[in-house]
Write a structure and sequence with these properties.
The structure is a single chain. With 187 residues, this protein is α/β, with parallel strands linked by helices. It has 6 helices and 6 strands; from the N terminus they run H-E-H-E-H-H-E-E-E-H-E-H. The chain has helices spanning 9-14, 35-46, 66-73, 80-89, 146-154, 169-177; strands at 24-28, 54-60, 96-102, 107-113, 127-132, 156-164. Strands 3-4-2-1-5-6 form a 6-stranded mixed sheet, with helices on both faces. The radius of gyration is 16 Å and the shape is globular. 29% of the residues are buried.
């Protein structure tokens, strides 16, 4: 409800109007258990071919260990097969960028262990969609900074979307100031 539908991922994966059939690039602000990645991967998997590839970028300042992720993902048995593949490739917790590949390279996960404030801007990308996850601005103010919203604007293009479960007026205001349109949707 929060990330797939509002970002029109099914439509994006099936959009053949892209002359170079470039991948759909999703940027997520916290990886956590990997659940958001797995749901995006499942959505991609369920789309018929031909479809655009998926490039998923996620940054995590405090990565969970493999055991904790495995335990958390047991709550979604419908994702067991995808979870097993993620866990098989899950990198050791060392700072930097880790590139994981699925479906013969058609899906890539760039997992960055680092700080959103300083590390995400070091990577070159243009986002089609932003998954703004993480704690609310009251619990994680550094994530919801002016610098981050500026980076979002710089790494987005016409048609880039975002979604978040945070609807605080300060976040809405900063997104509007960064050139995004903001609306609340059910879910």
């Amino acid at each position: 409800h929060t990330f797939i539908r509002p970002n029109k991922l099914r439509e994006r994966f099936m959009d053949s109007s892209q002359s170079d059939f470039s991948p759909v690039t999703i940027v997520e602000t916290t990886f956590g258990t990997g659940l958001d990645f797995l749901v995006a991967l499942l959505t991609w998997q369920q789309c018929p071919t031909p479809k655009r590839n998926l490039h998923f970028i996620s940054i995590e300042k405090h990565p969970l260990n493999r055991t904790d992720i495995e335990r958390a993902l047991r709550n979604w048995p419908q994702l067991d097969e995808l979870s097993a593949e993620l866990l098989r490739q899950y990198p050791p917790i060392t700072a930097g960028c880790h590139l994981l590949s699925f479906y013969d390279g058609k899906v890539t996960l760039m997992l960055i262990y680092g700080d959103l404030k300083t590390d995400l801007e070091c990577y070159s990308f243009t986002a089609d969609a932003w998954f703004l996850s993480g704690f609310s601005p009251n619990r994680n103010p550094e994530m919801w900074s002016n610098d981050f919203f500026s980076l979002m604007a710089k790494r987005s293009t016409t048609g880039t979307t975002f979604s978040t479960f945070t609807s605080e007026s300060g976040v809405q205001h900063e997104l509007l100031n960064s050139g995004f349109e903001v609306s609340k949707q059910s879910g």
